[in-house]
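ENTRY TYPE: paired fold submission
RECORD: A
CONTENT: sequence, then structure tokens
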Amino acid sequence: MLAEFVITFRETLEAALVVGIVLAFLAKTKRDEYNVHVYLGIGAGIVLSALFGLFLASVPGTLEGAAEEIFEGSIMVLAAIFVAWMILWMKGQKNVAGEIEAHARKHVESGYGLGLAIFIFLAVFREGFETAVFLASAYFQSSTISVLGAVLGVAAAVALGFLMFEFAIKVNLKMFFNASGLLLILFAGGLLLQAVHEFEEAGVLPEGAPLWNSESLLSQSSTLGTFLKALFGYASRPTLAQLGAYVCFIAGFLYFYFFYGSAKPAAAMQSHKPF
């Protein structure tokens, strides 16, 4: 439940911040007639994200054996890459609000309401796309997903976004994104470990002998084991390839985050973000 909550809360909050900044700009400049374009963008982004999520959930049912394991493993790898990309990009941003407002101003001053709707759509769909990939990966990893956790995450983010812009409530977003980013990167490492497991079972990677067996101490099927597997990818019998993927991913991310510098990753990813 915690993983689903953190995923949907963070992604929804990012989308809510974009929408809130644009609506605040429209209110400040008394251009409320463009609000409808914002709502159209939101609706289109949510609908397309939901359809993409349904597609991801339905694909494994059409596959068998190795093909299903390769598909699930590939989605887990994609989700891990998205997590690292998202956190590094966020770290390098200094004035996201200013950039968002500049985009909104450009479309409003040119009278291009459709452009504003497309801008909002891309922002919402990007977060929805990532959420769908993350939740699908979480499901493939543990064969279950907490709908309640996901719904609570969305509701909490929408409520927080509303309070921030309607009542000017101050929130330390940098602290929140740093804390949630740390939790998500551990979650992503677990996804990568599980992806290697799927590739080993599919025969894409050679299946090595387990480095240890902690099943008698903490079974993967126990309540705590299931929780740790869903959140951090706990494996009671990890192979060298699985453990190596986990350690290298975490170590590589920490290197780029703390030592490589935020400017280069941010610049490299800037063109891939809608704001």
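RECORD: B
CONTENT: sequence, then structure tokens
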Amino acid sequence: MSFAWHEIRDHLIQSSSTLGFQRSFDTSRRTGNPVAQFRDPAAVLDALHRSHDGPDQKNLILATLVRVAQSGGPGADCALTLILLALWPGLDAIRRRSVWRKIGTPDEVASDILARTTEAIRGLDQQRVNWIAATILRNVERDMLRARQREVGRQSVISDTDPDEVAGDHDAQEPALSHTRLHGDMRRLIGTDATLVIRVAVEGFSQAEVAIELGLSEAAARKRYQRATRKLRDVLQEDV
């Protein structure tokens, strides 16, 4: 993890512990929403990061924070900061995958993730969303990949370099292409849990991190991972 990425998180945590932040948080609590049960921002984050709390309750808290962040009121920036900190494990996973895919430098990726996440939060239509965290994380990563693909296509069109140099540029994207092929092959073998298995077994993320990304409880992610790997093992043994 780059120093800049650490700095961003440290800054968010520091800002969430100030007296002014607490006052903004208290403003959000007065409406009787699900956030009202928590006495301070740290308690909210603890509830959102605890593995034993149900995903439905976490989703209600996030939905409330999104509404406050979109309101433009005195608690908007406070709510936005809390959402970013709540999603941080998932955002960090996106950052690592994006660097691995060579979407940009670590600092460029960090800046892009924060900008896109902020935009996704403030523009989220909750009438069309079931799971807040999973939707935001999925949309941010999808949009980053699409932007990279558009840039690659644009560079291919306007490039004046010779064919050998163009071929070399495509080779640099091989990790992303290999990832796409791997996901397709795994999906054919084990179905919808392909992403879960790849994130954990291939890319090295913890089951807790992937659970947040996919909008699952840690226990559900663990059971689905075990079931999927057993299925994959059985399929591979049949082919021997």
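NOTES ON RECORD B: Residues 160-173 have pLDDT under 50 and may be disordered. Residues 171-240 form a domain with the Arc Repressor Mutant, subunit A fold (CATH 1.10.10.10).
STATUS: closed
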